[in-house]
Amino acid sequence: MGILSEYKRSIIVILLLLLASPLLGIVIASRIGYREPLDIVAEKLGLEEKAIEWSPLRDYSFPGLPDTIGYIVSGLVGVVIIIGIGLFLSKKIVSGDYEEYS
Amino acid sequence: MHIPDGYLDAKICIATYAVVIVYALYTWRVLRKKVSQYTLLSASVLAAGIFVAQMIAWPIPGGTSLHLLGAALAGILFGPLLGFYVMSLVLVVQALVFHDGGITTLGANILNMGIVGVVPSYYCFRLLQKLLRGREKWRIVAGFVAGWTSLTLAGVATGLELGLSSVFPYSLEISLAVMSLWHAVLGVVEGLITGFTVEYLYRVESPIVKSSRVVLEEVHTR
């Protein structure tokens, strides 16, 4: 993980937010009904989503897990993919060397 | 604000994809030689943070809710080009892995949240910093205004695309009015979170801020 140790604090904050996310993202959202402005427009215009099923992690769920745990696990998958892409790009594509700013 | 598949017609989908591809090529050309490994990794860690922050829905009295967009955060910290990379990374993973936002509408979503939400917020923040003579205690205010501007403009762009799309006729007035108005209101929350987060990252001298300084000096302040 070497190079990532620099980001220890940021990664801890990300993981804490992830643990807290179902509380607001699922529990409260389902109690008041998640509705963002785009949904209001879609309803007024009669728009319908035409999605093709391609991912088992649709809407931040995880197959076989209850909503709240699934939300955290699929979120973790997302975080790992994003940081993984970042690591890959920073190693393969960038020509400059690793620099230390401290 | 993530537009799902089926909300936009083919013309708008193609046009928005074209704009995003041109902007991405330009970003690649400018940044290729100037970005260090460290900077790119910092930008990606910020992307992971924004991804998680977007999973948290804030309930708003009256039955609406919103999540942080984070485009202003990306723009303020990493500028119009690397900030675009941050938001694109988030949006591509959301669409491909989580169905959050469609694939045909991915171009529009990146245009709204990765360009319209990012670019003005950077210039807004810099301009205010300059007007306030870089006084640190005002940084949080500059962050607030940039965050509000970012969410409102992204909302306006989304409303325009939905309205111009021929999926439903005579809808521009409705979609533009609803999207602009709501996002101008919700922008207050975006502004507050942006202001506080920017202030916090500067205060603790986060590695994200350190590497963002380098890219801003190298690329955007010549």
Q: What would you say this structure looks like, in words?
A:
The complex is a heterodimer of chains A (102) and B (222). Chain A is mainly alpha-helical and 102 residues long. Chain A has one domain (2-49, 57-92). Chain A is built from 3 helices and no strands. Chain A has helices at residues 8-32, 37-45, 67-92. Chain A is extended. Chain B has helices spanning 10-31, 37-54, 71-98, 106-116, 119-131, 139-164, 172-203, 207-220, and strands at 57-60, 64-67. Chain B has a two-stranded antiparallel ribbon with strand order 1-2. The termini of chain B are far apart. Chains A and B meet through α1, α2 and α3 of A and α2, β1, β2, α3 and α6 of B.
Sequence-ordered SSE layout with sheet pairings:
The complex is a heterodimer of chains A (102) and B (222).
Chain A: H1 8-32, H2 37-45, H3 67-92
Chain B: H1 10-31, H2 37-54, E1 57-60, E2 64-67, H3 71-98, H4 106-116, H5 119-131, H6 139-164, H7 172-203, H8 207-220
Antiparallel strand pairs in B: 1-2
Helix pairs in contact in B: 1-3, 1-4, 2-3, 2-8, 3-4, 3-5, 3-6, 3-8, 4-6, 5-6, 6-7
